[in-house]
Amino acid sequence: MNSPEIIRIPILPLGMVNAFLIRNGQDCILVDAGIPGSERKIARVLARHGLTFGDIRLIIVTHAHTDHAGSAARLRQLSGAPILAHKDDADFYSRKTPMTYCPTGPFGRFFLKTPLPHEPYEGFVPDMLMSDGDQVRLDDFGVEGVVRHTAGHTPGSIAVELASREVVVGDLVASGILIGGIAFTGRATRPPFEDDPHTVARELTRMVTGGAQRFHMGHGGPLGAGEVLRHAQVLAALPHQGCAHG
Q1: Range of the domain at 93
Q2: Cα dist. 166→151, 169, 185, 210 in Å?
Q3: CA–CA separation, 144 vs 192, rounded Å?
Q4: Tens-of-pLDDT digits for all 246 residues of the chain?
Q5: How many domains does one find in the chain?
Q6: Residue 70 belongs to a domain with what CATH number?
Q7: 143 occurs within a structural domain
Q8: Do the beta carbons of residue 25 and residue 142 sit within 8 Å?
Q9: Long-range contacts of 42-48 (CB under 8 A, 24+ apart)
Q10: Which of 9, 151, 170, 235 could be 19's S-S partner, Cβ–Cβ 3.0 to 4.6 Å?
Q11: Would 101 be classed as within a structural domain?
């Protein structure tokens, strides 16, 4: 297979919230669905590249936060593509259980008090549910790569690891300031919320040592392997402490 093209979809300006298209010819995978109402922005990016919703063969939702899952149900209706996600976030996707949050610092605690993280979205049941230890190969969708469970940001967070040595990691790492993006986007940082930094550190280190060279993320980026490894080492050195979920 040819190396796929990764196309960033700016859901919010300045790289604050990103979704991605992984394109290999006319085969197209959407990674993350943005906030509720993002379908128009996604349609414009598709059109600029000569694509339509009908060209999306798979929708991968990396985790259940509203800025990643918010338009998933609507995009499934528009494209007819199945949604792939992990079972450990399934009750959040269906809205059976309220989303939980573990702030990483003062900004995260402030952000949690605003309406933005709690914006409701149309609940859905993923068509393809991963379990622990599962790996979903993307060859059947026209892309050489796998989806793996990368817990640490949320219980069911997942990432796309391509044979081209590019990865799309959702919120496993961010870059920039505040929620990410805006400025200083070449420096890795923690997102506003993160369940377990030591699990995140282990997953990021595994990807780098496994050959990943370029990291695409929901907030800011992209980043090279060296900066991601530096960030993983910082996370690994943090003291172990419980998380008070919001």
Answers
A1: 5-236
A2: 19, 10, 18, 11
A3: 32
A4: 578 999 999 999 999 999 999 999 988 999 999 999 999 999 999 999 999 999 999 999 999 999 999 999 999 999 999 999 999 999 999 999 999 899 999 999 999 999 999 999 999 999 999 998 899 999 999 999 999 999 999 999 999 999 999 999 999 999 999 899 998 899 999 999 999 999 999 999 999 999 999 999 999 999 999 999 999 999 999 998 767 555
A5: 1
A6: 3.60.15.10
A7: yes
A8: yes
A9: 42/9, 42/71, 42/75, 45/7, 45/9, 45/21, 46/21
A10: 9
A11: yes
In three-state secondary structure terms, 201 is: helix
What sign results for the dihedral spanned by CA atoms 68, 224, 56, 155?
A: negative
Is 241 within a domain? Answer: no
- pTM for this entry: 0.96
Q: Within a domain: residue 65?
A: yes
Q: β-strand 17-24 against 27-31: which pairing, if any? A: antiparallel
Q: How far is CA 189 from CA 35, 174, 184, in A?
A: 22, 5, 10
By C-alpha distance, which of 109, 153, 113, 151 is closest to 134?
Answer: 151
Q: Of 120, 118, 124, 132, nearest to 192 (Cα)?
A: 118
Please report the sign of the dihedral spanned by the C-alpha atoms of residue 122, residue 180, residue 168, residue 18: positive
End-to-end CA distance of the chain: 44
The owner of tokens 């949320």 is 154
Check if the beta carbon of residue 153 is closer than 8 Å to that of residue 192: no
